[in-house]
Amino acid sequence: MASFIQLVVSGLATGAIYALIAVGFTLIWQTSQTINFAQGEFVMLPAFFILAAMDLGAPFWLSAAIGIALSLLVLGALFKLIVVDPVLKHGVLPLVISTIALSLFLKEGVKDFYSSQAQPFPALVPATDIRVLEAVISTQSLVVLAVAIATVLALHFLLNGTRLGRSMQATAQNPVLASILGIPVRRMVLYTFLLNAALVAIASILITPIYLAKFTNGETLGVAAFLAAIIGGFNQVRGAILGGIILGILDNLSAHYLSSQYRGAFPLLILIAVILLRPQGLLGRIEERTI
Amino acid sequence: MSAVLEVSDLRKTFGGITAVDGVSFEVQAGEILGIIGPNGSGKTTLFNCILGQLHPSGGEVRIDGSLSTDMRPCDLNRLGVSRTFQLLQVFPRLSVRDNLILAGQEHRGSMLSRLFGRGDAGLGEAADRMIEFFRLSHLAQQQAGALSYGQQKLLDAAMAFMAGPRLVLLDEPAGGVNLTMLGHLRERLAAYHAERKATFVVIEHQMEFVMALCTRVLVLAQGRIIAEGAPQEVRANPIVVEAYLGR
Amino acid sequence: MRRLGAGAVAIGVIAAVALPFLLKSFGIYLISMWAVLTIAAIGLNLTLGYAGQISLAQGAFVGIGAYCVALLTPEGFPYALAFVGAGLLCFAIGWLLGYPALRVQHHYLAFVTLAFTTLVFLLLRNEEWLTNGIYGINAIPRPTFFGWSTASALYFYFFCLGALIAISLAVWWMLRSPWGRAFVALRENPIRALSLGVDTRRYTLMAFAIGSSLGGLSGALYAPLVQFIEPSSFALGLSFNLLMMVIVGGSGFFFGPFVGALVAVLLPEWMRIAQGYYLILYASIVMLLMAFCPSGVIGLMGRAFNALSARRDRAATVLHGERVGA
User: Fold this and answer.
1) How far is A225 from chain C (nearest CA, A)?
2) Domain span at residue A54?
3) In this structure, is residue C286 part of a structural domain?
4) A192 found inside a domain
5) In total, how many domains does chain A have?
6) Into how many domains does chain C fold?
7) What would the pLDDT profile of B197-243 be if each residue is shown by its tens digit?
8) For the domain that residue C67 is a member of, what is the CATH number?
9) Are C190 and C318 in the same domain?
10) In the CATH hierarchy, which top-level class contains the domain B5-91+164-245?
């Protein structure tokens, strides 16, 4: 029982991180019809920005700030302006292909220009354990959980409690109507990309201490993002959060109780099952065939 | 004998907006029913619900007595229902002739037999006759995208007729067509109707077109039928006049 | 344009037949690889270029085909049977995979095929009793037909070339039939196609299943070509590579895969100097293409041709003083 609680808690922690990644993914899809196949690499990359800054001598907290700033610039603004905008006018399919190419580009880029070896990455707090009801829970998990929950709450407040956030949501749901209402649609779309960049940067800081910084991290994280978004229902931000948490817990439990050789298979089987049985996810609506 | 098309209490809501609000009507074989109404009265949404493009929020559609709500458009087409579109939808990079063959080929044999049969699915002559019927012979090999707007409208109608449908739904066939072409189009539609005894349902804005072509007219406003009857009666109906002109 | 195209094809065929006599064995190996990969790319082109669906599983199907042949032929199975079996198996798997995935929108097939490829890799790697796991299978024999052995590099190349030509003709036949018209309709305007009775779902599924079976056939040739296979050759990397081949060549064009496979096979050779940065270069080329010319090399050639002929027409106008063309 104790180990079960441990698994659930650490599962919640990883699940919260998946949720952040999945929310960003869903937001970008909603606002600009961009299926970002490079989302996993987007989470992999900020850690390397931070490591590079630390290599140059900056302390961790400064490097983290630099990493987040670089993410906003590169994964937010540059991604939108250089990769998405020129391609979007040709349709959704070329854009998906572009992001597939981008994921390869980022992965190989890190491998060739930084390192192909896994690098250790500093955690936010030193790893100590505390005992709760005979279960041993690491402070790291708790801190991750706390930061992730705080981020999700902040996100929720931003999107629903501020004018800016509501404008972004309006743009996501109906860009034409939004622009008629005077909302600067292009700027809102840019903000969504910046928001995603911030979310993946935070996710990167939280998850890299556990996975170590490796150029292949994007593969598993990307699948987690897609899966969480699909489980929750592709067109729902709340669904992405729910999907991420469910995935994190299931993933952790499966790692413990199932064969380690097929570790990576479990999320994939869930993906295939969801698409087979309930393609609209848990919270999504069945989409209309449009005219 | 059951009606060719029977719509019962059809409703369609999008979020908070009710586009179609309990519409019921029947179309008998051989009729040409016109559906008119001001912009936003729900005419195209009604069509899309009948044709399987949208899921109705309520109500039923029956073709020849059997339930057809929620059938996919391709299955409806194989039942003998076809349509034209308000926004032009020919295949620009195929030739006129190929567009027509495409329009009929799915009704010839099975998918597998079409793979091993003739390249034109045996429709070459039928396509040529259709091209002649619509007087597009000089354009047969041209890419459909190179035709003028009016000619594409004719092609659109021709495509709808290729499979010999019993029920044709025409969505604003006269929209944007110049006067000379308009007369030709209306005359061809009437000729097809006379020859094949097909049943038409036509959404239109242009009154003269409707008056000249249709045997019966429905008036839609705000998702509901507000008037019904012979073209002349409906035109004179004060409720209808008010719906168009507002208060 | 037609005559230019036909001329180019004729030159290509002549080159394909004559080239091996001018090359050493590594060169022959490269063009054999080109032929084999082109078959897989033709399959992916059907799925992507004609039916508009992204498949990230083509590499896995190549792997399934390869392991099919590698496991059966040493046991005495006739190669031809294993070859056909690979194709049929991949067709069936493609159908099963595509059936649920294509009922929904949003490019779910991309995700399903992504998951499938990783699953196949895990199976190939873990089930050592069957596949020998990471140690791979070696000494895969090259087939012998009616006493004619394909063991030599030259003969095996002609075997691959023959397969490529046969498969190309079959695909050409399919695209000239009413199916080809249905694929165009499906790609250009699926809504309109549906309203004309084209069962878009069925045709898309067919394109994906046939495309996957071609991946299997490609794998069936790949195994005896390289004669040693192991699971990591068929992971996501190969699927990405094939996808980019189709894109760079020009998706939706019949000869796109031929060009794309050529670029893919030659690029690492050209990039020997750059030492494996070729993947980054490849990815950059794809991103640039998507922004400026999504129709790939063939599309670029088409555009260049149109630009040149437009200029020639304008020049002719100046010379003759009358309107040329409409």
Assistant:
1) 11
2) 2-277
3) yes
4) yes
5) 1
6) 2
7) 889 999 987 778 888 888 899 888 888 888 888 888 888 888 877 77
8) 1.10.3470
9) no
10) alpha beta
Global confidence as pTM: 0.87
C186 and C65 in a single domain? The answer is: yes
Question: Taking CB atoms and an 8 Å cutoff, what residues of chain B touch A291?
Answer: 44, 48, 53
SS (H, E, C) chain A: CHHHHHHHHHHHHHHHHHHHHHHHHHHHHHHHCCCCCCHHHHHHHHHHHHHHHHHCCCCHHHHHHHHHHHHHHHHHHHHHHHHHHHHHCCCHHHHHHHHHHHHHHHHHHHHHHCCCCCECCCCCCCCCEEEECCEEEEHHHHHHHHHHHHHHHHHHHHHHHCHHHHHHHHHHHCHHHHHHCCCCHHHHHHHHHHHHHHHHHHHHHHHHHHHCECCCHHHHHHHHHHHHHHHHCCCCHHHHHHHHHHHHHHHHHHHHHCCHHHCCHHHHHHHHHHHHHCCCCCCCCCCCCCC
In a domain, A289, yes or no: no
* Residues of chain C contacting B113 with CB distance shorter than 8 Å: none
Interface of C with B (CB under 8 A): 174, 176-179, 181-182, 184-185, 188-189, 191-200, 202-203, 206, 326
Q: Are residues C257 and C210 in the same domain?
A: yes
Chain A contact partners (≥3 CB pairs within 8 A):
B, C
C73 in a structural domain: yes
Q: Inform me whether the C-beta atom of residue A288 falls under 8 Å from chain B C-beta atoms.
A: yes
Query: Does residue A258 sit at the C interface (CB-CB below 8 Å)?
Result: no
Kindly state whether residues C211 and C240 are assigned to the same domain: yes
Q: Where are the domains of chain B?
A: 5-91+164-245
Closest CA in chain C for residue B97: C181
ipTM confidence: 0.85
Instruction: Express each pLDDT in C123-169 by its tens digit.
Output: 999 888 888 888 889 888 888 888 788 888 889 999 999 999 999 99
